[in-house]
Every structure is written in C-alpha cells, then in structure tokens.
Fold Polymerase/histidinol phosphatase N-terminal domain-containing protein.
Amino acid sequence: MTQGVHSTVTGPSDLHLHSNHSDGTETPAEVVRQAQAHGIRTLALTDHDRTTGWGEAGDAAVSRGMTFLGGIEFSARHDWRSVHVLGYLFDPTDPALVAETDRIRRDRVGRAERIVRSIGRDYDLRWQDVLEHTTPDATIGRPHIADALVAAGIVGDRSEAFDGILHPRAGYYEPHYAPDPLTVVRLITRAGEWRSSPIRRPRGGIG
C-alpha cells in the first residue's frame, strides 16, 4: 500500500527493509547505515507485523541526511497461501491495527515453539537455542529457528535450513494465524492519517 509515497521519495530508495525487530540480522540504525553505504537516500523499515524499530531508524536516517518512512510487512493468508502486505504512512498506535499485529505475533511465537518441539524430537534443538538468536522486540519466525540450526551445526546456513528441515515437505511445518488480505488492507487504510504520516526528513530537506 503505497498511496502518497511517490511525493515523498527522493533519490535512490529502498522501501522494503527488515531489522532485528523481525527477521533481519541488524539493528534499525545499522540497517540505515548500510542503506546509506549503498547509495540509498530514502528508506522504509517494514518489519514483519512490528513498528518498534521506527524510532531508532528514523533518528538514524535524519542524522545522516536521509528520509525515513515508517512501514510494515503485514502477515496475511488467502486460503492456504501466505500473503505479505506492505503498508506505509499509517498511525502505528491505531488500536485495531495494534490488536491484530499483537495477535499475529503471539501466534507466531506459539507456532515457532511447536516447530522447535517437533524438530527437537529428531535433532538436538531447544527453544532456548532459538531465543538466543532473537531480540526482545523481535517477531519470532522460522528465520530465527534457521539461525539456531546453523549455530548448532545441524545445517550450514539459512538457505540449507529452509531447503531442508524447515521446508514443508520435511514434516515440521506449522501454520500460524493471519487475517485475510482484505482485512489487512482495511486495517492499514483506516489507520492511515496522511497529514500526520510517520515521515522523517533532515532539517532543511533533501540536498
């Protein structure tokens, strides 16, 4: 959902970035630093079902003379298919949106625990091993399980984990709750207040 973004973006842009507040590996500030190093001038942090990284990323972007847009990658499901909806420029404190993302994240945790229990029957992997690869604000998901599998020496890297143990055909896969895409679109648009959008620019505008 990118309504209004076209008038805000200046210069090379990346509007789909993750931090360690979901399944990324770097802090929001480090994501901004690396984006600038690659020539990005405008960026959006779109963590899975989470907006807690906006403040840190926004501060880092402004201090570097960049423009920051708050965003999210919202989990959804259509029939049996997983669908991810990108949303921008909405009020992150909207009660309905917060309630739904909280519900998604809670179920993601339960789902991750079920997956780890199943894997643990065949491999030396515990829930604590997964928690060691997350941050307190993280949306826990399969990438964190993959990192734990790598650290335990069970697989070589994330790709091997997803191609093998974490692939649905391996028998450990578990679904998680997610609303349908139309519900997500309605939540984002109803939470969106363009006049008070979470856009951060350096003082004096973009040079």
Summary: The domain at 5-200 is CATH 1.10.150.650 (DNA polymerase; domain 1). Strands lie at 13-17, 42-45, 67-78, 81-88, 199-200. The radius of gyration is 18 Å. The longest strand covers residues 67-78.
